[in-house]
Amino acid sequence: MKRDLKKIISQMTLEEKAGMCSGLDFWHLKSVERLGIPEVMVSDGPHGLRKQDDKGDHLGMNDSIKAVCFPPAALSACSFDRSLMEAMGETIGREAQANDVSVVLGPAVNIKRSPLCGRNFEYYSEDPYLAGEIAAAFINGVQSQHVGTSIKHFAANNQEYHRMSNSSEADERTLREIYFPAFETAVKKAQPYTFMCSYNQINGTFASENKWLLTDVLRNDWGFEGYVMSDWGAVNDRVKGLEAGLDLEMPGSNGTNDALIMEAVKNGTLKEEVLDQAVERILNIIYKYADHRAPQEFTMEKDHEEARRIAEESMVLLKNADQILPLKTSEKVAFVGGFAKKPRFQGGGSSHINCFKITNALEAVPADAQIIYAEGFPANKDLYDEKLAAEALQAAKAADKVVIFAGLPDSFESEGYDRSHMRLPECQNRLIGEILEVQPNTVIVLHNGSPVEMPWINNVKGILEAYLGGQAGGAAVANILYGIVNPSGKLAETIPVKLADNPSYLNFGGGDKVEYREGVFVGYRYYDTKQMEVAYPFGYGLSYTTFAYSNLQISNTNPTEKDTITVSVDVTNTGSIAGKEIVQLYVKDMTASTTRPEKELKGFEKVQLAPGETKTVTMELDKRSFAWYNTELHDWYAASGKYEILIGASSRDIRLSETIELSSSQVIPMHIHMNTTLGELFNNPDTKEAAKELTSRYLAAMNGGSDTASESAAEAITEEMVAAMTYSMPLRSLCSFGGFSRAEIQEMIDKLQAIYSNPLK
């Protein structure tokens, strides 16, 4: 149905228009019955609906409806599977339609800057490319059901400490390369109906009133078409926010901020057309849902099975020494740990789902499995209980193998606060050590929303990273342990050996300002560039089968920045059972045009293979795949030169590589001044000859100024020698060492700038 929104808005009173720009309550937008504007509801939902029917409170103190908890982002991103994430989105979209929810508040794509962030379980990855691709797939799935998404939290919201007021201090290149791309990809590939701005400030300006962020970047640079809503309570100055591009305040402010909007319009400090534009954006999204309302059945049992499938596709097998896994039903296995019976499968806070059912691993094992269960330690606190520990040790001695269900209690990670360390509860580490003394055949299953240190890593034979698996995660764990499912997930984040290894370690948390001093070196970009030992690298994950890579083909090894390159590689299942492999494509910049990470993920595909089967995996690269953000150009810049195309099974397991040479027509502006160095002139082809002449005269002056010396100097000058001796010498130094006057140097600078600006003249 086509609607004349401008006509509707022209019939609204100023009070009605101001009212449309804030919530009716915690979850509803206002209606205007006389104009046919319906009341619609939004709900938390990155991994399932948290619809509160009565007395909404945002953080979940009051009950929400019974629903399905899918695997949170920390796990689902490890699937590296766009189609799986799109299917998850479609399912959540149908659930939203079944429950009359117009916008799902998710996905959350903030980058995992530190393992300590209390909300990391809701975020996809440390890598912006992976986060963006997974988010776009999820959004397309949800919105295929005419239900909106609200991608969040825009932007640079990477900690919980003082999240409502602190300022994330980061340079533009860091923001553009690390903290913005997941949002940008989502806009360009999925066009989310709405954006949710973050609480924090960015370089001293609140996200909710940051015109550069909400208008210049989001709308003008990327082409976002929907409306921007605030995180709940994120508005600092409502009128400034409206001018900056913040359309909807959530929740309402009991009319306080609506009154400020009306006053600003009346006294002329806010143009009414700015208000009208915000209202039009909001109405457009309201009708996108209302005009496609499709009541349907809430298929919770079916969706529970879908949640299990997603968990199975995403869990990561980290270690499998001596092929301790999969378990056999003929073996006597001790399950130890409270999480075996009461799994931790989601995080705390605004995304917490009121599940209609929960499966645990203990009850989900095959019917003929021989299981001894001992609690060992509680699932909800760090308490070493002598009696429980003794029972666990006895069970371990009596068994052929032990599976310890370890992890973080709810109190260890949640929205609202950050972790203070990266350790498991001490009671768990202590009991794991004691069990290893009596039973070497031990497997650890981890239930955690973010990496943990593993002091026992070299002594256990198996590790399954289950993360937070959603309400069906227990069944997924059981199916992987017993080989009913072949694990295929890979890490969407690096697991460091210890917290102090993290690049943000010295600059995380803090007070009013948080300085992002590590710049673009986040996650594997830091660990791999520094060649630092890690527990497990980004993109890593084992299978019960093996894969071989061959026949790397690149469609064009001499492209320009306007070309799209096709990269293909053959993958063969060299084992005896069916499995899935995630092929990863990284690009290494060899041009030395700026300081860059050692490699960056620019492509991935998941492929299913029968034993002995070979399939060709194809990925595409464009200019952006090679580019870095140049703040002088205010654009993405791909330098001419060599780049290495790397195909790997993880960031540390590169199987194939080939070098290409890119020809770029882009030019970085050069501003020549007194402190420009001779080396910089030599590096620019337009000023190289002038730099040679200057250096010859400078060396001649240093040799006493004789013609003979000058000729000798000219003959002796080589590019290698000049680069070594003069690279860092600024032009002003020629006054001291070359006998030039200041005026003469300025004349040369003007001449050089003219040569650079008009190289053909």
TrEMBL record:
<dbReference type="GO" id="GO:0005975">
    <property type="term" value="P:carbohydrate metabolic process"/>
</dbReference>
<keyword id="KW-0378">Hydrolase</keyword>
<dbReference type="InterPro" id="IPR017853">
    <property type="entry name" value="GH"/>
</dbReference>
<dbReference type="InterPro" id="IPR036881">
    <property type="entry name" value="Glyco_hydro_3_C_sf"/>
</dbReference>
<dbReference type="InterPro" id="IPR001764">
    <property type="entry name" value="Glyco_hydro_3_N"/>
</dbReference>
<protein>
    <submittedName>
        <fullName>Glycosyl hydrolase</fullName>
        <ecNumber>3.2.1.21</ecNumber>
    </submittedName>
</protein>
<dbReference type="Pfam" id="PF14310">
    <property type="entry name" value="Fn3-like"/>
</dbReference>
<dbReference type="GO" id="GO:0008422">
    <property type="term" value="F:beta-glucosidase activity"/>
</dbReference>
<keyword id="KW-0326">Glycosidase</keyword>
<dbReference type="InterPro" id="IPR050288">
    <property type="entry name" value="Cellulose_deg_GH3"/>
</dbReference>
<dbReference type="InterPro" id="IPR036962">
    <property type="entry name" value="Glyco_hydro_3_N_sf"/>
</dbReference>
<dbReference type="Pfam" id="PF00933">
    <property type="entry name" value="Glyco_hydro_3"/>
</dbReference>
<feature type="domain" description="Fibronectin type III-like">
    <location>
        <begin position="581"/>
        <end position="651"/>
    </location>
</feature>
<dbReference type="InterPro" id="IPR026891">
    <property type="entry name" value="Fn3-like"/>
</dbReference>
<comment type="similarity">
    <text>Belongs to the glycosyl hydrolase 3 family.</text>
</comment>
<dbReference type="InterPro" id="IPR013783">
    <property type="entry name" value="Ig-like_fold"/>
</dbReference>
<dbReference type="Pfam" id="PF01915">
    <property type="entry name" value="Glyco_hydro_3_C"/>
</dbReference>
<dbReference type="InterPro" id="IPR002772">
    <property type="entry name" value="Glyco_hydro_3_C"/>
</dbReference>
